[in-house]
């Protein structure tokens, strides 16, 4: 205990010359006290500060970097439009990569890098690099502080030479204006414009109705009362790369009811001798609504239990589906085969925001 007290007293009795500046009565040098403020080193002028030709070279370098950024942004947009999304190229040392992804990453990276490099070179060679020490002040902003800040801001703007270096100013604004276009162009990947692809299917006037199981055209006698037959239009090749896209809109089911059981007059007119043809794509999220109950003439979607009354224009009886299954107008051709009289009157499948 006495040892601790002795040390405390020794520290309290230490002469002022061993204390940092401001703590004692005398000032000392940094050599005598390692905690003393060494101050700022003498300012050394850069070559650009004393040689206007060197300053001009730096200005042209910065402008070149900003110009390269603009060209890279234009390259990004051109690559996005011109390079196919499925194109694979060999690039050493990366190997086989997506040409589009590589071009987009390279050009966007170059655009951002050139802006950053240009700003750094500008700051290091042309902007003022004089170090200024400032005492800490209170958090509150007094009127004189605000005036000081505005004055310093104006001074900094003047020292940046942004107003004087018109070449830098113009190319910087150009680069900053073009870089955001990269993000705007990427918005196109929210999805290609569908056009009318969601409104039309492979059905057209005269299309034969083909049994999905046998791939043979159907006759009226092939459809018996109480049965459900799944079908599609002729001309669709199951081995075609776009088959799934087309069948998702064109798949249909045929049922045969007794004429007196059909409640909807228009639905009966669009059929043939009690044979009705409806899209089998549920209008909720697109599952096949092909669970058929022959006594009630109801078609059930197994995904979320949407139920449609095929005897009453396929109207929705239950579930989250928003509208009836579209019906296809059918007839019989001269050879006795069932055929379509045109496409669906309404788009098949789930609702979409463009649907009128």
TrEMBL record:
Q: Does the keyword Iron apply?
A: yes
Q: How does it sit in the membrane?
A: Multi-pass membrane protein
Organism listed in the record = Streptomyces marincola
Please give the function described in this protein's UniProt entry. Iron-sulfur subunit of the cytochrome bc1 complex, an essential component of the respiratory electron transport chain required for ATP synthesis. The bc1 complex catalyzes the oxidation of menaquinol and the reduction of cytochrome c in the respiratory chain. The bc1 complex operates through a Q-cycle mechanism that couples electron transfer to generation of the proton gradient that drives ATP synthesis.
Give the matching PROSITE patterns: RIESKE
Q: Where is the composition biased (Basic and acidic residues)?
A: 1-21
User: Which Gene Ontology molecular function entries are recorded, alphabetically?
Assistant: 2 iron, 2 sulfur cluster binding; metal ion binding; monooxygenase activity; oxidoreductase activity, acting on paired donors, with incorporation or reduction of molecular oxygen
According to the UniProt entry, the coiled-coil residues are none
Origin, by domain of life? Bacteria
Question: Where does the UniProt entry say this protein principally localizes?
Answer: membrane
The residue ranges crossing the membrane are 62-83, 103-123, 167-187
- Can you tell me which family this protein belongs to? Belongs to the Rieske iron-sulfur protein family.
This chain belongs to which protein, by name?
Cytochrome bc1 complex Rieske iron-sulfur subunit
Q: Does the keyword Iron-sulfur apply?
A: yes
The residues covered by the Rieske domain are 249-339
Disordered as annotated region, ranges: 1-46
- CDD domains per record: Rieske (cd03467)
Q: Which UniProt keywords apply?
A: 2Fe-2S, Cell membrane, Disulfide bond, Electron transport, Iron, Iron-sulfur, Membrane, Metal-binding, Oxidoreductase, Respiratory chain, Transmembrane, Transmembrane helix, Transport
Cited InterPro entries: QcrA_N, Rieske_2Fe-2S, Rieske_2Fe-2S_sf, Rieske_Fe-S_prot
Output a single Gene Ontology CC term carried by this record.
Answer: plasma membrane
Q: Which Pfam families match?
A: QcrA_N (PF19297), Rieske (PF00355)
